[in-house]
User: Fold this.
Amino acid sequence: MTGRIVIRGLVKAFGSRHVLEGVDLRVAKGESLVIIGGSGSGKSVMLKIILGLIRPDAGSILLDGQELVGLKGRAQETARAHFGMLFQGGALFDSLPVWRNVTFALTHGKPGGGKVMHALAVRVLAQVGLEARVADLKPAELSGGMQKRVALARAIAANPEILFFDEPTAGLDPIRAGTINALIRERVAALGATAITITHDMASARRIADRVAMLHDGRIIWEGPVSAMDSSGNPFVDQFVHGRAEGPVGTAVTG
Assistant:
């Protein structure tokens, strides 16, 4: 198995609750992979393990052949420098103006470099369709859709090679969600980045993905090109994609 990111045998449990039970997955360079699955299926846990925020019980994660599991200190920070992340809900810092939020990863949250960072933030905000005046506002002064755009601007500000999106359209109406999906696709292409998105929004999956993988009961049970999602031949995927109450996934699926 080759790829920019290669996951082998990823296992994670919290007490008696087994979340991941041997996940194997590959993401090619420049590919946009969307991981779908029901609420509580382990999508966010897997993302946090890749980011080094949670340690797996077993398994391997390779980035360009380098093992990420077990990295600490400077080695971990060096690996993370490749990453940009759009968190579910945006996760903006309410006490900071937008321009400080956008440049947070570049300044490590420390003051200084005001004029340069402000100018950079304005340029990046323009890439996500926001006016320069937004840079000096606080997150609380923005609509939900604008906050998502700012969060996207923060994710791409350092020109990362790998982007992660955690439920990027959660809480947005269909029009604003469509705008965010289009911006994600556009920015990923412009950066030539590799992207992993987790979502249960099928409109997002169809718009963002080159390839789709479904996580269920702690394992990847299907993966293929987004064009094959509606004709996967997998009853779990079919039920989830079409939002059917009846099927092998059960009624616990909420997304």
In short: The first strand starts at residue 5 and ends at 14. The chain has a mean pLDDT of 88.
